[in-house]
Specification:
It contains 16 helices and 14 strands. The protein has about 450 residues and is an alpha/beta fold. A five-stranded mixed β-sheet has the order 2-8-7-6-5, with helices on both faces. A three-stranded antiparallel β-sheet has the order 9-12-11.
Length: about 450
Amino acid sequence: MELPFAESYKIKMVETIRRSTRQEREKWLKEAYYNLFNLRSEYVYIDLLTDSGTGAMSDKQWAEMMIGDESYAGASSYLKMKAVIKELFGFNDFLPTHQGRAAENVLFSLLVKAGDIIPGNSHFDTTKGHIEFRHAHAVDCTIDEAFHPTLYHPFKGNLDLNKLEEVLKSNPIEKIPFIVVTLTCNTSGGQPVSMENLKAVYEMAKKYGTLVIFDSARFAENAYFIKTREPGYGDKTIKEIVKEMYTYADVMTMSSKKDAIVNMGGFIGFGDRKMYEEASVYNIMFEGFVTYGGMSGRDMNALTQGLLESTEFDYLQTRIKQVEYLGEKLKQYGVPLLEPIGGHAVFLDAKSFLPAIPKEQYIAQTLAVEIYLEGGVRAVEIGTLLADRDPDTRENRYPAMELVRLAIPRRVYTNSHMDYIAATVANVFERRNQITKGLKILREAPIMRHFTVELDRV
């Protein structure tokens, strides 16, 4: 018989988790003002809030931490990381930062000015936040297919070249410092961008005289989808695909808490030496000296090893097949979700799930709350709360899709946990017609409100 698929690792250490009662969860949710970010971690049975910094490091990563060089300047850990970034991405210069949003802060402090326009594919929340904080504007150029949950397209993260060219043609190019391409595109469902599209975007950027920046948090997962879905790449290694991808970028930002499988860390990779030197000033001010940038030597070592591990096919296949396993279980229960299933998460279609809830009552957040109440599973809203308010009108921005993201930490949970998650969501789906009222805001921050918002039942 054909041998079944099995994980490409074995478990060496475990952490105890506790199942709570529904009565306890009702109390904790009320105390947290129905914001799942406010819950204490011990109140959560299975935590799918994010895959950022929540992965399990390998034995080799832990071993690397023991030999970290904590020298303030010129540490061997920095030089090791520099060599691997050059090997994988082709960039000669990089700046370490403590995480992805710090990389954005450093880079955007240099490049983004008030009134600028930044086109891209469904900008991540911190990316859009850093843009709008500087009184600039993010313009979404994602293909239309991305906003139809059940429509199949192998690369729903692609930029629409006609939309992009319209932005480039209709605005002064000096007001468009760069195009940002998010790999994979988290906000639109963890969807990949094809190599063909990356190349076309880069060529268009060069035609009009602007830069291309890759938001690289899940670059390895994107490479996996290119290998498995795009003609001509099936026989290439993940590392070969990554190397080609980054020939179509001028700069990269990286939240290493995702595809470098570490708890903290990030960096900026530069193709231009002058830009690196100019950005170094901000890095020293905000993060630390250019050879540590807010990271310890041991963290740089673990990050470097994680980059090498995450660009191996066996690891990526195990990782993405677990996400697919959860998605297929949910489909068997009839649960509406975004297809094709993304690389790091399953995204539930909250509009189809809870059709009785009006958009003004935060459909996706309502669903996320119900999932936690049902089984102690913490997910996150990718909907109106995250979309935030229009910076000019201060009115809610209602996105095309209301999604609940079930983000799977790397190498943490077993498929038995996936079965539990699927049953939890299915139970909520069975009683969906009883859920007719949503949530209202009591207090919110002026930007990136979803992290700290306080809510109550309508």
